[in-house]
Automatic annotation (TrEMBL):
InterPro entries named in the record: A/G_AdeGlyc_MutY, DNA_glycosylase, HhH-GPD_domain, HhH_base_excis_C, HhH_motif, MIG/MutY, MutY_C, NUDIX_hydrolase-like_dom_sf
GN (gene name): mutY
The name this protein goes by in its record: Adenine DNA glycosylase
EC number: 3.2.2.31
Gene Ontology BP, a term: mismatch repair
Taxonomic superkingdom: Bacteria
Cofactor note: Binds 1 [4Fe-4S] cluster.
Signal sequence range: none
Length: 354
């Protein structure tokens, strides 16, 4: 195993030196910027996350700038990235660092792990890259590389698998330069040992990769099937008055899109007709609050918005209002509000909102 360790680290570091991407967070030692990049890149591809990284750095050059910003501004900048709890936790952690730590970023694994929204992966990544802490990173790319190279079939999304791969990654860690090493393994998984159709014939490890030798590359890593996807039926009620005002509500309850804004929502247990919608108790509450006139279905074909464990089957209903909407929101002001991408896409297509 000692020989394998030395061979693995030397080859992976050599490959990284020649193949690494020039990414902005790799050209800085600022832990704030590196931490920000790691949070953005959770559940997000590099090409998708890059514009958001630049937007955040421009809006918040320092962690104190982020901490002092209103949460709604943070959520607005995050709009479209999904998994909005990342943005809320980012903001909370920034406030903690700014107020409780006097703006000084934590320098130990334990203290990094104590930050809101920071788990083993992020603490290991930031700690190794910024401070050369001896903590191995294990993300999807690392799971893939190690499971194939060593032929490990333990499911990666089980407690047993998490422990096994972390132990192996920690054993292989090149402690003289942990930050570069961790980035090298992740980069190799992202760029070469890809989920589908990796170029195994030209791989630097094809002389020792168990999966390649046993023709199990496509089978590894093993991941247990997810829980059944839940279907939900959303009906957004888009109110419009004569002054081109509408109404938004903020989602304050826990769950998806907490603190984001949306049109009044009627959730049903199936796709409904206008007659069925008007009989719904939630719709009746909206009707009792406003003097509603015409009800028009905007999209006959439902928009299906897919989240990790649920699919939102969505219709938008345009409803004209007789009287002026009290505390209504001007159409022109809608871009100032942080909304789910599902609603942002609707706004971009609906003529009065353009």
């Amino acid at each position: 195993m000692a020989v394998q360790k030395e061979l693995f680290s030397s080859r992976i570091m050599s490959w990284y030196t020649s193949n690494k991407r020039d990414l902005p967070w790799r050209n800085t030692n600022d832990p704030f910027k590196i931490w920000l990049s790691e949070i953005i890149l959770q559940q997000t591809r590099v090409d998708q996350g890059m514009p958001y990284y630049y937007k955040f750095i421009e809006a918040f050059p320092t962690i104190k700038d982020l901490a002092s910003a209103p949460q709604e501004q943070v959520l607005k900048l995050w709009q479209g990235l999904g998994y909005y709890s990342r943005a809320r936790n980012l903001h909370i952690a920034a406030q903690f660092i700014a107020t409780e730590l006097d703006g000084e970023f934590p320098i130990t694994y334990k203290d990094l792990l104590a930050l809101k929204g920071v788990g083993d992966y992020t603490a290991s990544a930031v700690g190794s890259i910024c401070y050369n802490l001896p903590t191995a990173v294990v993300d999807g790319n690392v799971y893939r590389v190690l499971s194939r190279l060593f032929g490990i079939a333990t499911p990666i999304n089980t407690t047993e698998g998490i422990k096994e791969f972390k132990k192996l990654a920690q054993h292989l860690l090149f402690k003289k330069d942990t930050g570069t090493y961790n980035q090298a393994v992740m980069e190799f998984g992202a760029r070469f040992c890809t989920p589908a159709n990796p170029d195994c014939d030209h791989c630097i490890f094809n002389d020792s990769c168990v999966a390649y030798k046993t023709e199990r590359v496509s089978e590894l890593p093993v991941k247990l099937k997810k829980t059944k996807v839940r279907k939900r039926y959303f009906n957004y009620i888009v109110l419009l008055d004569s002054e081109l005002q509408t109404k938004l509500h903020q989602r304050t309850e826990k769950g998806i899109w907490q603190q984001l804004y949306q049109f009044p929502l009627v959730e049903t247990n199936k796709i409904v007709t206008s007659v069925e919608l008007m009989k719904d108790d939630c719709f009746k509450k909206i009707e009792s609050e406003y003097k509603l006139e015409e009800l028009i279905l905007f999209n006959e074909v439902p928009v299906i918005h897919k989240l990790s464990h649920q699919h939102l089957i969505t219709h938008f209903w345009i409803v004209s209002v007789k009287s002026t909407i009290e505390n209504g929101i001007k159409i022109s002001a809608l871009p100032d509000y942080a909304v789910p991408v599902l609603i942002e896409n609707f706004i971009s297509k609906f003529p009065p909102f353009k």
